[in-house]
């Protein structure tokens, strides 16, 4: 059965500050490259298949390692850093990770979350999401799916607010991305038998590292923008 | 076709760099063009689908190597995927400039480009990659890239790109319709991020910098990348030590 914890983690009403981030949507809208539902779809699909992939993979890796007593969070943190070339995106990821970790420690108290907070007080968001998924009783595959969904749900909601789009049309678009979400989660955490315990640290090096040059540019432009509604 | 070419440097008795190894393997033919400069000369078409090519660079501690190419690389279709694997080990205090001409993805190609860059402390590297999506008016084939740079075993940068999927190429999140993209990885760390139209200078978390550019054509792409590189190292030449990093972008 689907884990109820997954529903809470993926819910945009989880008070973890996600509403303050647009994942590049505000800047791409300001530039005029996204202006309606079809152009938003091209943006979200591109975002999901690039930034969404390492996010999902890191979340699944963190979920898998969370069963360990000392999972080596510093090493996974370095791997997340190495996959995030843009300083603005690193900052946005750590801000959201810190807020999610704070909320998760109160909602699903667990030693794994305390260990993460001791090692990396401001973890990257996918890592915080993976350990929160463990504390909430969700599987690694579910953590990957939640991270993939997070890669598009925030930007989609931001676009509704910024462009005054029909929210039903945008939700239809998110629904149409369903097969893509499943494919990204599956690539991040291939199905099959997974022995319990963390993956050997060396294998973290091989996790997907898909990047998106335009998202990097948008993130840095946004960090310098004088007028903005969203943090990222 | 399977072929593996290699370059290796050593420090000579007077401390100057000598090329101790220069192994060509057509289509990857190497020519020494300067005391520590090697040019890649294509002596066959391609890579073609099915080719497995590798280039191995071994830059010994405190030596210098510059690798360039005389022409762009045109990746052509064939039987299955072509692959170019470039591995480079850069020793302590060594300097490497990797500045080949662009890779052009011809229609129907399926290419895999893998770079593994292993650095030791105080290594100084400028590594430029430029990709052009098809010749003039041509729809590009497909290409998957992976770049991994580590310093003493710790990750500095890991990046993958998937190119030639029309939906992703056109996505305003990915290439935004740009036909040329380029990345320069530098071990020098930019003081601060910098961004302008089509160009971002991104200081990495551990150390080093990525210059990332999107452009309509290869000339504009090179000009953007060089501007970004100058902004990082002050004068655009990462192998010149002792120059300040204070120069403004675009100002020599």
TrEMBL record, chain A:
Q: Which UniProt keywords apply?
A: Chaperone, Cytoplasm, Nickel insertion
Q: Which GO terms describe its molecular function?
A: nickel cation binding
Gene3D superfamilies (alphabetical): Urease accessory protein UreF
Q: Where is this region: Disordered?
A: 186-205
Pro residues: which segments have biased composition?
A: 190-199
Among InterPro entries, the record links this protein to:
UreF, UreF_sf
Q: What broad class describes the main subcellular location of this protein?
A: cytoplasm
- Biological function: Required for maturation of urease via the functional incorporation of the urease nickel metallocenter.
Kindly provide the name given to this protein in its UniProt entry: Urease accessory protein UreF
Encoding gene per record: ureF
TrEMBL record, chain B:
Chain residue ranges for the region called Disordered: 232-252
Name any one Pfam family assigned in the record. UreD
Q: Which InterPro entries match?
A: UreD
**GO CC annotation terms, alphabetical:** cytoplasm
UniProt GO molecular function: nickel cation binding
Which keywords has UniProt assigned to this entry?
Answer: Chaperone, Cytoplasm, Nickel insertion
Per the similarity annotation, which family is this?
Belongs to the UreD family.
Can you state the subunit structure given in the record?
A: UreD, UreF and UreG form a complex that acts as a GTP-hydrolysis-dependent molecular chaperone, activating the urease apoprotein by helping to assemble the nickel containing metallocenter of UreC. The UreE protein probably delivers the nickel.
Annotated protein name in UniProt: Urease accessory protein UreD
Gene for this protein? ureD
């Amino acid at each position: 059965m689907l884990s109820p914890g997954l529903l809470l983690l993926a819910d945009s009403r989880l008070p973890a500050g996600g509403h303050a981030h647009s994942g590049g949507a505000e800047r791409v809208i300001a530039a005029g490259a996204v202006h309606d539902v079809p152009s938003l779809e091209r943006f979200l699909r591109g975002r999901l298949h690039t930034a969404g992939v390492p996010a999902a993979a890191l979340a699944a890796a963190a979920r898998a390692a969370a069963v360990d007593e000392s999972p080596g969070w510093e090493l996974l943190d370095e791997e997340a850093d190495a996959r995030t070339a843009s300083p603005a995106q690193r900052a946005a990821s750590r801000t959201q990770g810190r807020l999610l970790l704070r909320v998760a420690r109160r909602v699903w108290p667990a030693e794994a979350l305390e260990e993460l907070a001791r090692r990396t007080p401001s973890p990257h968001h996918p890592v915080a999401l993976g350990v929160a998924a463990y504390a909430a009783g969700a599987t690694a595959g579910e953590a990957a799916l939640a991270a993939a969904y997070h890669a598009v749900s925030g930007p989609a909601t931001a676009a509704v607010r910024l462009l005054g789009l029909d929210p039903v049309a945008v939700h239809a678009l998110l629904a149409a991305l369903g097969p893509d979400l499943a494919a990204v989660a599956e690539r991040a955490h291939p199905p099959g038998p997974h022995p319990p315990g963390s993956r050997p640290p060396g294998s973290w090096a091989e996790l997907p590292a898909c990047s998106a040059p335009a998202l990097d540019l948008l993130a840095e432009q946004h960090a310098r923008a004088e007028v903005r509604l969203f943090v990222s | 076709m399977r072929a593996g070419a290699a370059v290796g440097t050593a420090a000579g008795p007077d401390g100057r760099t000598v090329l101790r190894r220069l192994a060509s393997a057509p289509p990857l033919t190497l020519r020494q063009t300067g005391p520590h400069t090697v040019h890649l000369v294509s002596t066959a078409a391609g890579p073609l689908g099915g080719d497995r090519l590798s280039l191995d660079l071994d830059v010994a501690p405190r030596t210098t190597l510059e690798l360039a190419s005389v022409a762009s690389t045109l990746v052509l279709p064939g039987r299955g995927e072509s692959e170019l694997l470039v591995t480079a080990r850069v020793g302590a205090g060594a300097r490497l400039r990797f500045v080949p001409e662009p890779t052009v993805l011809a229609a129907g190609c399926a290419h895999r480009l893998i770079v593994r860059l292993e650095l030791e402390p105080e290594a100084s590297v400028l590594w430029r990659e430029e990709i052009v999506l098809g010749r003039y008016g041509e729809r590009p084939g497909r290409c998957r890239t992976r770049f991994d740079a580590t310093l003493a075993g710790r990750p500095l940068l890991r990046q993958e790109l998937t190119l030639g999927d029309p939906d992703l190429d056109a996505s305003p999140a990915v290439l935004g319709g740009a036909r040329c993209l380029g990345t320069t990885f530098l071990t020098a760390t930019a003081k601060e991020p910098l961004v302008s139209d089509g160009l971002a200078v991104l200081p990495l978390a551990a150390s080093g910098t990525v210059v990332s550019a999107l452009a309509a054509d290869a000339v504009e792409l090179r000009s953007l990348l060089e501007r970004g590189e100058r902004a990082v190292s002050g004068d655009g030449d990462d192998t010149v030590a002792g120059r300040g990093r204070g120069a403004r972008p675009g100002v020599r």
